[in-house]
Amino acid sequence: EHKVFRRFWIFSFFAFIGASLQNVGAAWLMVDLGGTPLQVSLVQGIMSLSVVLVALPSGAVADLFDRRYIMLGSLSGLMLATAGTGALALTGHLSPQLLLALTFVFGASSSLMTPAMQSTIPDLVSRATLPSAVTLNGMTSSASRSVGPAFAGILISLLGAGITLITNVLAFVGLWLVVATLGQSLAVNAPAQQRPSIASAIRVGLRFAVTDSHFRRLLIRTLACFVGVSALLGLLPSLVAQRFDDVGAAGARHLGWFLSCYGVGSVLGSLSIARFSRRFSRDKLILMGTLVSGIAMLAIVYGESSSAMSVAMFAAGMSWAVALTSINIEAQLILPKPLLARGLSISLMALMIALTTGSVIWGAIATRWSIPVALTGAATVTIIAVMAQWFSRSATSR
Description:
single chain, mainly alpha, 14 helices, 86% helix
């Protein structure tokens, strides 16, 4: 019923696939370059770090200026970063350091895009349909984790990583054209002279995050839950290469398969949110989803067969989608309209701080000891964090 949202949603799906393909391609390129488990984990970590550094100003800019131009610039940055990575890999000039630098550029562009993109959704649908729109947007992100890695595995095995990443530019072109042809302005209506400075806007957003008890609790929960969960995707490429003794095309197909299982689970998790929400509060869904993620990591470590890993990856993807979509819906409903982009960027920053911290910690542990030790530690920390919050929540309610 919402034609503009439909176009925005459909081409966002292709952009999400492009981002997923870039993540898989970069991680596998680091394996091919002989990177240590810490360096492979840092591919996810540097992506998260770029979001942490750019998120706050991105949210302020999205609240103060026309979001169309912000999204167009961000999408251009994504296309340049993926094409640059592919070209350097194709010519043999890519090093681990250059790969991490270009991954940072890709992550920074993505970070600039995300608050503008998320805060545009309420402009395209009514408030009554906003939870459904947010869930649909989350579902396309989850579906991309199924299609993107499988597509990446096939293309890398057939064409090589360089040509695959250069071709990946096409994934972002459709959304660029949709945004470029939006007829309505996506800017705050206040005159330019009445707009606060970016620094002032950031301070207002941070003050809200500190003083609003509901939003503050959501941020704390995000930080506590996802430090441990970060280990799975960060260490998976190294685990696949080690466990199945696969580097190159065969390894890329193996990695693509497991990430596809994760993506299929994510889609099912997104589709199940409405049903779960009728039985449980979003607060409980966040904790339950995180708990299942911790258990799934243990299953991946100790169930060494391909079939056991596939089932565990499916469960991990489903639980991740349930927890993350619940966080996004809760944030959209808590935040006042004038602070929407800033609040969403702060929520995203909390998630990425957890993922960055976790990537460094678990990658270092995997390099010093072993990947199973790191994943077991991450799963244990995740389960303990959930239990602590659950008992704290129960004590507060009493």
